[in-house]
Amino acid sequence: MPDKTSMEKENILTSLGAKVIRTPDTSVDDPDGVFHISRKLAASIPDSIILQQFKNPINPLAHYHITAMEIFDQCDGEIDMIVIGVGSGGTMTGVGRKIKELLPNCTIVGVDPVGSFIAEPPILNETTLKYTEVEGIGHDYYPKTLDKSVVDYWIKVTDKESLHMARKLHREEGILCGSSTGSLMSGALEAARNLKEGQKCVVMFPDGVGNYLTKFVSDYWMESKDFLPRPNIFKHWWWDITVSNLSLARTETISLNMTCGELSSMLYSQGVDVLPCVDQNRILQGIIYAKDVTCKLLNASITLGDPVRRVLSQKYRKITVNSSLGELSHILERELVAVIVEENGKYYKLQVGTVEDE
């Protein structure tokens, strides 16, 4: 399961008796990513199976024969537009193909998060973002189940638009949906501008709120991700002072070339709980938590000879020297570490502020 996946999803699987292994949020080709690790586990665990939802042809067939027909029947065959996102690609392909056969003039609109590379033409995907907070839709690859020819046009939606729309649906409509539903509803409102009065638009709501109670449902989480402002409730005089006014010692960093054994020795000898990891250009790649290294060594999910990227975590908050002390305080109220990044051209100098015991 990728690091960005909510804790609720992990907890549900754990309660069902599963052992959950977290992987970095990396590309589909990364040997430490979720696809490679799952194949490796399947090869080593007797009688195991991977359902292969991203390339199993039965996936779109189920939506072709069942989901599409349910939509058609419920709408009495009167549908002018359908708005769908791409997770595995099964819904888009199955529903899109069937509805196009039944209603050739129905417009199929694809919604894709900014930071994903599914939409066409490719110019729509141009962005500096490499990460999306919305879960369940959007990828940096094309699922083999996806037939993009059924899509008439694509709409890109930002994380902020998606999450605020999902919360609006909770508050105003009583629909307790997930983040990807916010994406689709935002895209649908934009697409519906092309409809005439009386025409029907169907929006596929793919997820419920239960998997995201500690994420976008939480005001704190929304504030920590800059999707909501952080109020200075207690009127602290230092709230708007910038981090650059603090005296912070430089922290040690670790290289991607280190092994887990070398890392373990370094953490023990220096007595630190967390260290940032950088590449050869000193660009931040992630954070190493000592407890993660210890746990993974003890349960044999890593060896001392493995590269440190096997224990890299993306679960940290990154701020700049121009961020306010209010923002830093807000982070350290609940989280162990904040990484303060001072940008100088393409290079980064790293500092780490941590919560220390009194």
UniProtKB/TrEMBL annotation:
InterPro entries: CBS_dom_sf, Cys_Synth/Cystath_Beta-Synth, TrpB-like_PALP, TrpB-like_PALP_sf
Pfam families: PALP
Domain Tryptophan synthase beta chain-like PALP residues, every copy: 1-207
Gene3D superfamilies listed in its UniProt record: 3.40.50.1100, CBS-domain
Swiss-Prot/TrEMBL GO biological process terms: cysteine biosynthetic process
Source superkingdom: Eukaryota
Protein name: Tryptophan synthase beta chain-like PALP domain-containing protein
